Amino acid sequence: MLRTAAATYATHAQSVVLKLLARAPFKVQSVPLVIPKCTVATGGVGLAGLYDELFCHHLYESPKPLPARPRIVDAGGHLGLASIYFLSRYPDCNLTTIEPNPWLATLLRTNLAPWSERARVLEGALSVRAGYADFHFSTDNTLNVTGGLENREPPEREVSRVNVVSLDATELLAEPVDLMKLDVEGHEFQLLSLPIFRPAHIRNMVVEFHDLHQRRAAFAELMHELRHVRGYRASSVDGIELPAQLPADLPDCVVLKLY
Of 102, 191, 201, 240, whose CB neighbour count within 10 A is largest? Predict the structure, then answer.
């Protein structure tokens, strides 16, 4: 995906169209995109904000240059828009996308079908052990992005559960990974404690950390382990490296790059 002036104009024009669709009095079930050229099945979920983050601001771009044929893992695939970004940005990559929500996984397979030679979809929850686990989601919205192994819904929302396959991260990530996106709705604290998460093995990561107001101490401890023991560097998505002393005003959810 070349960052020419024409491509930049096209992505911003696409962003405007998606924002207009978000205001429509009906839910759009599929959206044709120009950059990249494909059609995304949405199930009625809006894409405007996510498209902006990915294709206009390159939120998930690797913090370091990748090899010619990088191995990329997208944990928390959602509708596949991040995976489509990776497939477009790194056209020779080999991609594995993981999604535990069975309703989202159905749409995800549809959206990644044009790249089936390079993209593999695994339906299951990336976890610290193999087996089965309860996946929680809000009853009134099966496509809610906050669904996860942990129940993160507010008390006033009705929550349902479905039993999903639990994928052993140590086994699945046994081969080195050049770039990993990790957005697993709170389970990142357990996963990142695994010893496979070290710069020589999982070389670049973009991680969304959740619920920091409740997990401030755990977050500080984990970041100390990742940075000062295992040797990762950490920056904001804008490339600003984090100071040794973490800021006190971090938002409840924050996206960081580790490399």
Answer: 191
